Each structure stands twice: as C-alpha cells, then as structure tokens.
Amino acid sequence: MVSLYQAQKKIYPRSVSGLFSRWRWGLVLLTQLVFYGLPWLEWGQRQAVLFDLASRRFYIFGLVLYPQDFIYLAGILVISALSLFLFTAVAGRQWCGYACPQTVYTEIFLWLEKLTEGDRSARLRLDASPMSLNKVARKASKQFLWIALALWTGFTFVGYFTPIKELGVSFLTAGMGPWETFWVFFYGFATYGNAGYMREQVCKYMCPYARFQSAMFDKDTLIVTYDEARGEPRGARSRKADPKALNLGDCVDCTLCVQVCPTGIDIRKGLQYECISCAACIDACDTVMDKMNYPRGLIRYSTENAVTQGWTRSQLLRRVLRPRVLVYTAILGAVTFAMLISLALRSPFRVDVVRDRASLARIVNGGKIENVYRLQVMNATEGKQDYRITVQGLPGLALASESLITVDATQSRWVPVRLELPYEGVSAGSHAIHFEIEAINSQARVSEKSVFLVPR
Questions:
Q1: Hey, what CATH topology would domain 349-454 get?
Q2: Is it the case that residue 3 has pLDDT exceeding 60?
Q3: Residue 37, exposed/middle/buried by CB under 10 A (0-12, 13-18, 19+)?
Q4: How far is CA 132 from the centre of its chain?
Q5: Which of 163, 313, 393, 419 has a CA between 20 and 30 Å from the CA of residue 292?
Q6: What's the pLDDT score for residue 7?
Q7: C-alpha–C-alpha distance, residues 176 and 353, integer Å
C-alpha cells in the first residue's frame, strides 16, 4: 500500500535563551496582557472595548460606532494589509515569529508542557516510556493546564462581544446563552487544538501567508540566514582545535539550530517557506559560538545580497529605503492619515431618512400636500442630546410635526416627520429637499437629502 500523505513526526523544540528569545517572550507578555486585560477596563460606566452585536453598537474607549460606520472597519483592514506588506518587504516573517497568535499560544503551551513534562530530552524519554503512574500524572496535569488556558481564552474572546462581568456571572451560574456557550467552547477548542497539537502544521499547511510571502520578498528582505561561506565545511572538533588546520568552517555540526526550531527545519539548507523568522536558531548558534570562542553571526538576520556581497551593517540598512518600501510606506501613510482625519471630523450623530411607504403623498386639511418620513437619529456620544429638525428646498415647505427631539446617550430613535406644502404654484413631480438636523448642545449639524412628491 502506498500512502498519499507524508508521515509527520512530532517535533520536540528545545528550549533556548538569548536576546531574541527575550524579545519573543516580551511580546508574548505584551500581547496577552492586552488581550486578557482589555475587556476588564472600564470607560465611564461601561466596558472600554465592547462590540455589542445585539444593539449594533461598537464601543472603543470614547468612540461609539454604528453599522453605518463600516467604512472604518474597511480602513482598518486596508491598513493592516498594507502594514503586513510593508513589514514583510523590510523584515520578512518576523510577525509570524514574534506576534502571530499561533506562535504566541504555541510558546505558552510549550512552556506549560515543559513545566509538567520537563525539557526536550525528558519529554522524549517520557513519550518513549511505557505507561506508568508518573506518565499519567504528568500527561494529565499538562492537559488540565492546556484546557484551562484554552477555556479562559475562549471566555475572554466572547467577553469582547458580551459584557465580560455579566458573562462571568453567567458562566459561574451556568446561565450562559447558547451562542455564548458555543463560542467559548469553540474558540477554546481551536486554541487547544492549534497550539497544543497542530502547532507547526498550521504555519506550514493552513496559513496562506507562508505561501504568498515569496511575492513580497526580494534579495534585500531581512531574513534568517546561514553564512555558508563561513560555516562550511562543517564538522565536529574540540574547543582548542584550529578549524583552519582541520580545513573546517565555523559550524561544529551540533544540530542545535535544528533542535530549537519550532517548525523542524535546518536553516543551513537555505531559506525555506516553513521558516517563521523566530530567530531561535540564532540564539542557539550564538551560544555555541561563544563557547567555541568564535565570532557570533554564523546564523543571523541579514539579506541575500548582504551575505553574498559581504555588505556591512550600514550598507544593509541603506537598502531598506528601496522603491518597493517607499511605495508601501507612501500608500500606508496616505490611507492612515485619511482615516484619522475622517475620524477627527466625524459627526457625533448620524441621521437616516426613510420615506413612509404607506402614503407617498396626500392632501390634508387646508388644501396642503403632505409627505410623511421617518428619521433615524443615532446619538454617538456618551451623553443625552437634543436635536432640532428643519427642512429646506421648496418655498412654503414647513414642518408639521415636532421639531425638537431628545435621544439618550449612545442610543438611536426613529422619529415620524410630516412635511406640508401649499398646493398652488408647485409643479407635479419629485422635488429635492434637505433635512437639516442640528445638535443643540454641540452645534454639530447634519444634512440629509430626500425628495418631496407632488401628485398630479
């Protein structure tokens, strides 16, 4: 029988310490403090960041957004995509190696695994050993910690869409709704499966970024590189031996760079799509170079051009400002600036005008023509607001309903509006008009276009 699938061996990454390892753990702590802590922050009398899908309001500190503000979500997605393109063109896949949620949670789950089962060699021995009470206890404790963290992650995720304090009470009293329960366990299961078991398989086979990254790379992109000219031919030797006398390069073939790699590749074979630029191999190799009294940098962050042409650090940095990077930066800056200006000039309220479909136009007492509308006034501020409604566009057009309305903080209100116009002197057909809505407290003003129908 011939299998159509390649057998996958479990990877046991070795722990490593060094500059880049500290940077990686620093970003793990930073990202998780933001993710787990943000839902618990309060802004006034509400949760600081809350995406309230039920009431269709999105609270981001002092900003209140409605579904009509979808353009800002599109802007955020465009900025994120351009930022990813720019960062990849400059520094390769360092997002993957330091801040990607898959990498972050894999690091945390590996740390919990090391805490319960020991380091790499201990885990290898434990998995190869027959079943015993010690093995069951260690495996069970690991699973307990994994499941607890995964459920807490799912709970926190749902806390961005349901007030987290209310969600906590519902969770403890088993009173969560069906959708909340589903998403807590679904997101928890995804975290448990991806970070606990799939790990590098997600990066290698499921994540599209690894596949299209080559379109954003060039020979001046910063990547993890192995200096083949310096390291080859590789071979073992004593610390006191002279590598030149033995006709050897600086690589001692210790394979630590392979043992620490979370995706199980050998960086000495050149750039591979599985590499996530986490620099674990750099920390491991620098440690060995220090022990051998060799210069650091056999494996380092560099570019293909810098390695092949022997550039200095200043020459490498000068190539950062190349045309591709400048174009990405200009576009990203323009989009970001436009979005910030739009947010700064954004009106504190919105108005939608809908014609009453039950009666397009009718004749009322006094021989006047009446059109009926419905105005939705959405207050995007944190305080109660009063609004004045006026109308313009036709001579003699007057408001026949209440002109002053009040809308509570972060609420919306539908208001029926009747307009009347003398029949004489107006031609039949559709006439453009404008509703003018003014916030009395803030002097902000919104103008909405509509039409007034005059029957034949």
A1: Immunoglobulin-like (2.60.40)
A2: no
A3: exposed
A4: 43
A5: 313
A6: 59
A7: 38
CA–CA separation, 304 and 306 (whole Å): 6
So what's the pLDDT on residue 450?
92
Confidence band for 356, pLDDT divided at 50, 70 and 90: confident
Tens of pLDDT, residues 25-41: 999 999 999 999 999 99
Q: Are 335 and 78 in contact (CB under 8 A)?
A: yes
**Six-digit token pair at 50?**
């809350």
Pairing of strands 368-379, 362-364: antiparallel
Examine the pLDDT at 4 and tell me if it is beyond 60.
no
Residues in contact with 340: Cβ distance below 8 Å, sequence separation at least 6, in sequence order: none
Cβ pair 439, 349 in contact under 8 A: yes
Q: Domain residue spans in the chain?
A: 7-346, 349-454
* Predicted pLDDT at 6: 55
3-state secondary structure string across the chain: CCCCCCCCCCCCCCCCCCHHHHHHHHHHHHHHHHHHHHHHCEECCEECEEEECCCCEEEECCEEECHHHHHHHHHHHHHHHHHHHHHHHHHCCHHHHHCCHHHHHHHHHHHHHHHHHCCHHHHHHHHHCCCCHHHHHHHHHHHHHHHHHHHHHHHHHHCCCCCHHHHHHHHHCCCCCHHHHHHHHHHHHHHHHHHHHHCHHHHHHHCCHHHHHHHCCCCCCCEEEECHHHHCCCCCCCCCCCCCCCCCCCCCCCCHHHHCCCCCCCHHHCCCCCCCCCCHHHHHHHHHHHHHCCCCCCEEEECHHHHHHCCCHHHHHHCCCCHHHHHHHHHHHHHHHHHHHHHHCCCCEEEEEEECCCCCCEEECCCEEEEEEEEEEEECCCCCEEEEEEEECCCCCEECCCCEEEECCCCEEEEEEEEEEECCCCCCEEEEEEEEEEECCCCCEEEEEEEEEECC
**Residue 125: exposure state from Cβ atoms within 10 A (0-12, 13-18, ≥19):** exposed
Could you tell me the two tokens for 264? 């199980």
User: What average pLDDT does the structure give for the chain?
Assistant: 89
pLDDT at 438: 92
The alpha carbon of 236 is separated from its chain's Cα centroid by a whole number of angstroms, namely 45
Give the angle subtended at the CA of 135 by the CAs of 131 and 136, to the nearest 5°.
85
Structure tokens at 256: 């630590």
246, 237 contact by CB (below 8 A): yes
Phi, psi of 43, deg, nearest 5: -130, 105
Sign for the CA dihedral angle at 289, 217, 82, 336 comes to positive
